[in-house]
Design goal:
This protein has about 130 residues and is an all-beta fold. The protein is built from no helices and eight strands.
Length: about 130
Amino acid sequence: SDLLFPGCELTANTKSYTFQVDEEDDSDHILALSVVCLTDGAKDECNVVEVVGRNHENQEIAVPVANLKLSCQPLLSLDNFKLQPPVTFRLAAGSGPVHLAGWHQIVHREDASFEEDDDFSEEDELPPIMPAKK
């Protein structure tokens, strides 16, 4: 099931926000970021938003996902950038306020196989790509 992620706001006073799920929950969770934008009261300065998570070796990594400035790029569409909780959003530079919004998907493991629900089945395979004619 998909749930709207009400989002969070990063400011000079609240530099980070962690999205996590109950460790006892045996469902699979995906958090997808749709938009990162400056909100009312933002100064014309660079605001860098980082995503802090864990890599395949369980080491913490921080990756910048947005560099917003009121005069040139106040909003960035992230096209549902998918993350696996727990994940922390951090304002690495600037004072915000920066708002993040998206959705949270929960896949219950006891649900029927999601392969049946796929919009793209084997019967819908695309034809092979043919080389361009010279």
